[in-house]
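Practice problem: predict the structure.
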Amino acid sequence: MTTAKFSKILDGYEFCAMADLMETRALVSLERGTVHIVSSDLELDLDEALPEDIDTGPYLALPDKRELDLGRDLVMEFTEKVLPGSVDTVRDFFHRRGAYARFKDFLDRRGQLEAWFAYERTATELRLRQWCADHGIDLV
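Answer:
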């Protein structure tokens, strides 16, 4: 079983989530438990050089938001718990582009934006921890 620091796993996941428009991925070494960011963006300044075996060695790509089911279903789950009378309104946001912006504006107007961010963060951490367990990565 591989041992890795959860903080490094979470940092790699979040970096890739923020760098969504770049070709960026985070890989965890199944031998060392280290996390490495790989990007085609030449301006990305990494603190350390990538291992030579990054393309051939035993590495596992960290999941993205879709793989962890942190998209629309999570929004609807939150809405059902926190604003149950607004489920149809929020569901309608997802019939057009810009759904997340409209959702966040909606929450901001109702004073629930910080609650959403906390809910999303908790779900992300729980699902990322479960993903690690499912892939034999012991967290410290």
